Amino acid sequence: MKKCILAILVMAVLVPAAQAEDDLAALKKKVKAQEDSIAQMKEQISAVEQRTGAAGGDNWWDRINWSGDFRYRHEMSNDEDSLNNAKGTQQRQRVRARIKMQAQVNEEVDVTVRLATDGSSGASATSTNQTLEGKLDSKEVWLDQMFMTYSPQDLEGFNVLAGKMANPFYRAGGNQLIWDSDVTPEGIVLQTTTELSEETSIGFNAGGIWLEELWASAGTSSTEGSDEYLWAAQLFINQALDATSSLTAGASYYDFVNVQNSGGYAAGNSEVSGLLANDYNLLEFFAALNTEVNGTPLSVYGSYVQNDGTESGYNQDTAYLLGLKVNKCTTPGTWQAGYEYRDVEADAVVGYFTNADSVGGGTTGQTGGLGSETHQVSYKHQLMKNVQGGVKYIMGDQIDSGGDNQDFNRLQLDLIVKFK
Questions:
Q1: Which has more pLDDT, 120 or 154?
Q2: What mean pLDDT is predicted for residues 196-213?
Q3: What is the share, in percent, of the chain residues with pLDDT greater than 70?
Q4: What is the mean pLDDT of residues 300-316?
Q5: pLDDT exceeds cutoff 60 at 13
Q6: What percent of the chain has pLDDT over 90?
Q7: Per-state percent for the chain, helix, strand, coil, to nearest 5
Q8: What pLDDT, on a 0 to 100 scale, did the predictor assign at position 56?
Q9: Which of 159, 227, 273, 418 has the fewest Cβ atoms within 10 Å of its own Cβ atom?
């Protein structure tokens, strides 16, 4: 009897335990199925994100940066005619507005598009100013930049730019001896920077810039091969001197192809029957020293240009510029002062692309002149965050073919607002 009772008790314990094990196994099976389903869903979501470029919840608009600026300028100009008679003072109100979009296509490619005002109906490469005139009519906006940048991740310091781009060539102190600051070259440019040590790096820029596409229509003489373009190469070294000082020095070569005997470039350059009399093969040497004096930033820079493309009998082929900048505009209340001396002979640089403000534009400010020289004094003050006030005074001489000097004076008062 006791054995029978004991057997019944053992069965009472073992049967529920076996049932519990079966239930636990079934539950584990369900959990495993759910985990597999979740993993499959994650893979599907990841595949969709990779196709749409939205990995990690990064929306396309998060990869677009917007920036721009607005400038209001009051400008006064006074110069003399060829008989040294004062022409009187011109006063005008001018504005400039620019807005830029930079989109990150992926980790190696960016695309930049910028719109800007232009009072010349797009006919000027050296100005985005719009004069306030025209009986309150609407003002024009043009594509000022449109280019892509390729920066491969496995080639540090290597960039390829293609399109209508921000000026890719180094300009000591940002000077405008060869290139006005508003010029946006069009073509393909390669940029490389190589670090030789913690203190030393070498930069190299090279590319082809397209100026004018020429093609004769059927039945006329062919102009094939006479397209106007520019081959450019630039090499420079940057050397850190100490914790607050560095020196950059180098050379550039700009070979303007098929511009001789062409029209539209001669802003002060020598002409024959309205066409450029010379070729333009510009060799430039430049240097810039950036340092601090008693904690105040100081920059001294210079550039020298020789045109090796002038024909026999044309000797006005050199230009040089020396500049100085003191302090920098950063936080409200800070300031920057600057001075530049510029001496440009008539055929030293291409007049169409050089500083448009100096002596009224071009190399001489007039047709048939020998050259020009100017003194430029500038001051900027950071009024508040992203808002600057500035004043610039340009005093110079336009040197005519007889060797006489015509005075040139220009005063610019600026209010500049930037956003990013």
A1: 154
A2: 97
A3: 85
A4: 96
A5: no
A6: 70
A7: 15, 50, 35
A8: 44
A9: 273
For 404, counting Cβ atoms within 10 Å of its Cβ (0-12 exposed, 13-18 middle, 19+ buried), the class is: middle
Compute CA 390 distance to the chain's CA centroid, rounded to the nearest angstrom. 21
Residue with the two structure tokens 């620019």: 98
Q: Is the dihedral of CA 58, 63, 64, 69 positive or negative?
A: positive
User: Hey, what CATH topology would domain 60-419 get?
Assistant: Porin (2.40.160)
Query: What's CA 351's distance to the chain center, in Å?
Result: 21
Kind and range of the H or E run holding 37: helix 2-52
Find tokens 């719109």 and name the residue.
115
- Count of other CB atoms within 10 angstroms of residue 7: 10
* Token pair listed for 172: 């000591």
Q: What is the pLDDT of residue 188?
A: 99
The one-letter amino acid code at 243 reads: A
- How many other CB atoms are there within 10 angstroms of residue 169's CB atom? 21
Q: Please identify which residue in the block is written with the tokens 């100085």.
A: 324
Residue (of 373, 381, 273) closest to 335 by Cα position: 381
CB neighbours of residue 342 within 10 Å: 24
The answer to whether residues 256 and 263 touch, using CB atoms and an 8 Å cutoff, is no
Q: Name residues whose C-beta falls within 8 Å of residue 167's C-beta, 6 or more positions apart in sequence.
A: 179, 181, 183, 184, 185
DSSP state string for 145-181: EEEEEE--TTSTTEEEEEEE-S--S--GGG--SSS-T
Output the CA–CA distances (angstroms, integers) from residue 312 to 316, 349, 350, in the order listed: 11, 17, 18
Query: Which amino acid is residue 266, in one-letter code?
Result: A
Among residues 252, 153, 232, 253, the alpha carbon closest in space to that of 189 is found at 232
Tokens of 91: 């006063």
The residues that bridge with 376 in the sheet, in sequence order, are: 340, 394
Determine the length of the chain. 420
The domain ranges of the chain are 1-58, 60-419
Distance CA 172, CA 4 (A): 107
314 burial (CB, 10 Å; 0-12 / 13-18 / 19+) is: middle
Torsion of CA 354, 357, 363, 368, to 10 degrees: 140
For range 19-25, the mean pLDDT:
64
Integer CA distances (angstroms), 344 to 214, 216, 399, 408, in order: 30, 36, 10, 15
Q: How confident is the model at residue 83 (pLDDT cuts 50, 70, 90)?
A: low
Taking the alpha carbons at both ends of the chain, their separation in whole angstroms is 95
